[in-house]
């Protein structure tokens, strides 16, 4: 015997949308130890085409806010500062850039464009931070960028760096970001 409820739902199963399945959009950089995060950032920079990537100084030496340097694919000498933090304020960004600007790398970059990139374990989308970045780019003679968790994740995905995700995170994270479903 067919009930009213059965008749209402007959034939409708073909029009049911598949379930919404949200996936992670960023890797959990904030869960890495700071040394691991710094090492991963160096590996990401190399995967993005930078050459001659090296740590800048060693523990105890004045580094002027530089963790490592490299030459971009365009030939630009680039200094990187890595920050595994919970929040970056405009004031802290300003201090980091100021520290770098007083250092040896920028003053020795005569005849070469020099860039400063701050790598972050978090997303840096606060309006005040973006505004301060714009002000700093106007103030200093070198370009300044922020590579936050979104940018770092994008480089890993678009450069197909599964091996780095496996090495620093896990197989489960590699599957989340790199396994694609094959349709018939």
Concise synopsis of the structure shown:
Helices cover 41% and strands 15% of the residues. The protein has 184 residues and is an alpha/beta fold. Strands 1-2-3-4-5 form a five-stranded mixed sheet, with helices on both faces.
Q: Report the C-alpha radius of gyration, rounded.
A: 22 Å
Please report the distance between the alpha carbons of the first and last residues. Answer: 37 Å
Q: Would you identify the regions where 5 or more consecutive residues have pLDDT less than 50?
A: none
Shape, per Cα inertia axes: globular
How much of the sequence is in beta strands?
A: 5-15%
* Structural class category: alpha/beta
Would you report the number of β strands?
5
- The oligomeric state of the chains shown is single chain
**What is the count of DSSP helices, taking H or I runs of 4+ residues?**
8
Q: Estimate percent helicity.
A: 40-55%
| Overall pLDDT | 85
**How would you write the strand order of the largest sheet?**
1-2-3-4-5
Question: What is the chain-wise order of helices and strands?
Answer: HHEEEHHEHEHHH
């Amino acid at each position: 015997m067919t009930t009213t409820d059965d008749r209402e739902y007959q034939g409708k199963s073909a029009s049911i949308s598949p379930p919404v399945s949200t996936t992670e959009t960023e890797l959990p950089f904030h869960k890495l130890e700071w040394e691991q995060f710094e090492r991963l950032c160096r590996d990401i920079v190399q995967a993005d085409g930078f050459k001659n990537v090296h740590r800048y100084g060693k523990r105890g030496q004045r580094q002027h806010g530089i963790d490592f340097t490299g030459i971009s694919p365009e030939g630009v000498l680039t200094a990187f500062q890595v920050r595994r933090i919970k929040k970056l304020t405009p004031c802290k960004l300003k201090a980091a850039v100021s520290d770098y600007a007083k250092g040896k790398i920028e003053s020795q970059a005569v005849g070469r464009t020099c860039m400063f990139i701050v790598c972050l374990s978090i997303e840096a989308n606060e309006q005040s931070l973006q505004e301060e970045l714009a002000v700093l780019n106007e103030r200093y003679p070198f370009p300044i960028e922020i590579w936050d968790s979104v940018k770092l994740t994008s480089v890993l995905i678009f450069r197909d760096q599964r091996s780095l995700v496996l090495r620093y995170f896990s197989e489960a994270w590699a599957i989340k970001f790199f396994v694609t479903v094959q349709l018939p």
